[in-house]
User: Fold this.
Amino acid sequence: MTAGEIGRRPWIVGVSGASGTPYAAAVLRALLDAGESVDLVVSRASRLTLLDETGIAFRDAHWREDLGDWLARGADGKPDTFAVGDRLGQVRYWSAGDLAAGPSSGSYPAKGMIIVPASTACVAGVALGLSKDLLQRAASVTLKEGRRLVVAVRETPLNGQTLKHLVALDEAGAVVLPASPAFYAGATHIQELVDFVAGRALDAAGVPHRLYRRWQGELGGGSVDR
Assistant:
């Protein structure tokens, strides 16, 4: 461990194979903007979704370059929408197949974990404690250590089995957070709808951000200039 890593307590961000990679990018950007350290786990299935939704092929050997391209891209698919700068130095990447990685152990220091987006297969794996890959194992560790686990499930409609799995996660202490954007914040662009969901995930994690306009108890407030 280097001197710069002493005392490091990251948020683990797991990206599963559900549609919704812009949600993950928004969460990651906001965590880095807040000065948080991040441990990133990208499932094998999510790489296919990322390629389909953004055209980015996420590669273990070039993860920093690929992550930079991903975070710079807007929810509408336009590249170079966001400035990433040198913030990727706050990120540590772990391969999803590495079950000996740091986040696989309860002794590894972490603040908690956000799974965004969470597929129904991921939800089932975490609820049943399967630990078939590092993402699921890290989530199980987060629960057993009593740390905050936010599961941003992205699927519709939900069948009975998935609903049972979500109830099991809630009973285990996780925050079940459907990726459901609201419209009272006056969104006029897809990025603002994405940022609302990302912001709610960060609210559940207790991380400060300025991703969306909060409800102030005034009807029509979302239509005024911000």
